[in-house]
Every structure is written in structure tokens, then in C-alpha cells.
Amino acid sequence: MESIPRLQKLVDTLTALFKEREVKDEQQKLAIAGDALKTLVATDDWLPEEFAQPHPQYYQQYLLYRNPQQRFSIVSFVWGPGQTTPIHDHKVWALIGMLRGAERGERFELVSSGQPMKCISTDMLFQGEIESLSPSSGDIHRVSNAYANRVSISIHVYGGDIGQIKRHVYDASNGQAREFISGYANVNAAAS
Ligand SMILES: [Fe+2]
To answer: What's the domain count of the chain?
Structure first.
């Protein structure tokens, strides 16, 4: 990552912020980390082409950096035209910064067992903007490329090695959860 100075700056900030296993003052640290991410996505001249490739069918998650103690990871999320995630959670804090294009984020809430899930907000994220999510304030959402005719790319930071964390996707019609591990498009699961 020394070869990408803008990204290295974010890595250095995050390394200093999350050097302890236990995250105290999460909101305060996320505000500082969010500022560093905002600086990174303010300029779209640094992401290597290999981490910006869309797939014709699936959105892609490329691992850009993984902290050796697995305190955080940085991922480029590449959306093909019209692509969307299932409704999912994260189990760790997350920051999203829009590098190219735009995305739509819908937050969901579980109602009672067997009931349809409730969409509590829909927000657009445009180039240069950031948002944060935390399990402590509800982190279930669905994210889509806002454009039907172009690629969008966001840079995500997670409070763990997100590709290896057991988390959930949800059925909107009844709130049923299913466990999943997302992996990364550019890391062999067996070797990660
Ligand atoms: Fe997410």
C-alpha cells in the first residue's frame, strides 16, 4: 500500500485509532476515521484498475487492506449498473465513502417474528460523501447502485476482517435471517 499514498494515509489513521482490541469511544473514533475516509474519496485518482472491475452479474468486494490484528479492513465495493445487495447486517462498525457514482442505502428494522421487515429510511450517497453504521444503533440495510447505466464504486471500512465475519442476510417478507460469510473477490477463501 506504500504505492498508494492516499490509501496509506487512511491505513495509518485507522491503525493509530484502533490499536487496542477494545474499542472505547466508538462514535468519536468513527468521526475521526470518517474524516480520513472523506479525504480519501474526495479525489478519484488512486484506485488501481484491478480493484475497480465490475462483474456483469454480481457486485464485487475487493480487499484493499487488512489490519494484521484484524481490527479493521478496507474494501472497494464495485457496483455494475443496477446491482444491489440482499438485506444484510455487519456485526461490526462500518464506514462507507462514495468514490465514483452514487448508491442508495435503505435501512431496515426487524418487526416481530414472521412479520415483513420495516424500511425505516432511504438515503442517497453521492460522490465524496460518507456514512457510518454501527450494530449498536441498528446496521441492517440494503445497498444499490443508484445508476442503471453506469458503474459506481464506494470504499468501505469495517471494524474487523469483514470477508471472514459470520453475519446475516434477511428475507424482507418475514425477517428470517440466514448466516453468510461474504469473502472477497480477490482473495482465495482457503488462503485468507
Ligand atoms: Fe452493508
So the answer is: 1
